UniProtKB/TrEMBL annotation:
Keywords: Membrane, Transmembrane, Transmembrane helix
Domain NAD-dependent epimerase/dehydratase, chain residue ranges per copy: 3-221
SUPFAM superfamilies: NAD(P)-binding Rossmann-fold domains
Pfam families: Epimerase
Membrane-spanning residues: 318-339
Protein's name according to its UniProt entry: Unannotated protein
């Protein structure tokens, strides 16, 4: 099968290209850069700007498209640039259908379900898409899905797979989303949600399965089950995490972001407070099986920190110091919020 992969030089795309070629497929790797791909196979790597280049020859003779290109950042605090990114995706889809590509895959995120207190555990693909409006990345992905479904409705005979992976990690490398969530979760509210972590190798296999079966469906991608809050707390933290009310957590997150202490946008806070774990029955029914559990993926991505190497007494001393620093941050955040309210009056 001839398959076009956009975003082929990226963290995920390069792995997908390698895996598809190893499976005997003819892969056209497309990206604005091509570093690191040429040595993997003799097939051409095409360097083009998807927003402006002529694409007909890229898709000529291809049966499937895997669209992984996209530049909208997960730490965006507004939707500036979101439409441009979606327009590029739609341009790619339209050109692909125009030359006879019969299947397309678009990468979304499980964050489009939103993090809400009344979310079922787990969420299936039939759950409504309702991203938290303050988190621009999830809103942008939801709009991309809407546009892609509209494109699919206007292209009889073309199938579309939309993949919604949970938090992606790799060996020794948490993804940007994983790092942002961890920054915010240093402080918690009274509600600790369950969590899921997906190893990038398992996402690559899901993309291969969805592409080669030419499935026409929305697919959640996550390991079986989830990590319970108490288990995640034991895996992720070597120090006390102060509990605060939700509004204080929001204020602290905004203060840390505005001051540059943390890069996590305040809009991501809800995803550390309310559940958004997903079921994987649909992708499993296609023959996909995760090779890493949630816990294994998390541990593989997060190396033991320096606290784990210290004796208990020294660890306690540092933990108390860190907790004190967090309390000071919270007090400062409260003062900052009260000051802003006074100024507005």
């Amino acid at each position: 099968m001839k398959i076009v992969v956009t975003g082929a030089a990226g963290f995920l795309g390069s792995r997908v290209v390698e895996r598809l070629r190893a499976g005997g497929h003819e892969v056209v790797a497309v990206d604005r850069v091509a570093s690191g791909l040429e040595h993997r196979a003799a097939e051409a790597v095409i360097r083009i700007d998807l927003a402006h280049a002529e694409l007909r020859e890229v898709f000529e003779g291809a049966a499937s498209l895997v669209h992984l290109a996209g530049g909208f950042p997960v730490d965006a605090v507004s939707l500036d640039g979101a439409a441009d990114d979606i327009d590029v995706a739609m341009r790619v889809l339209e050109h692909a259908a125009g030359v006879g590509v019969r299947h397309a895959l678009v990468l979304s995120t499980a964050m489009v379900y939103g993090a809400w207190p009344n979310n079922p555990i787990p969420l299936t693909e039939d759950a409504p898409v309702r991203p938290n409006s303050e988190f621009a990345f999830a809103v942008q992905r939801a709009e991309l899905e809407r546009r892609a479904f509209a494109w699919r409705a206007g292209c009889p005979g073309v199938s579309l797979a939309v993949l919604r992976p949970t938090v992606i990690v790799a060996d020794g490398l948490p993804s940007r989303v994983a790092r942002l969530l961890r920054q915010v979760a240093a402080i918690r509210t009274d509600e600790d949600p369950p969590a899921q972590y997906l190893h990038v190798d398992d996402l690559v296999e899901a993309i291969v399965v969805a592409t080669t079966t030419e499935v026409d469906a929305v697919l959640n991608i996550a390991p079986d089950g989830w990590i319970r809050p108490e288990t995640l707390n034991a895996l992720a933290w070597n120090r006390p995490r102060p509990r605060v009310s939700r509004w204080v957590l929001n204020a602290v997150a905004e203060l840390r972001w505005r001051s540059g202490i943390a890069s996590a946008p305040p809009g991501i806070v809800a995803y550390t407070v309310y559940p958004w774990v997903v079921a994987n029955d649909r992708i499993r029914a296609l023959g996909w099986q995760p090779s890493n559990s949630n816990e294994e993926a998390f541990v593989a991505a997060h190396e033991a920190g320096p606290l784990a190497m210290m004796n208990a007494r020294r660890r306690q001393q540092i933990s108390l110091g860190v907790a004190g620093g967090l309390v000071a941050t919270i007090v400062g955040a409260i003062g900052w919020v009260l000051f802003r309210r006074r100024v507005r009056r």
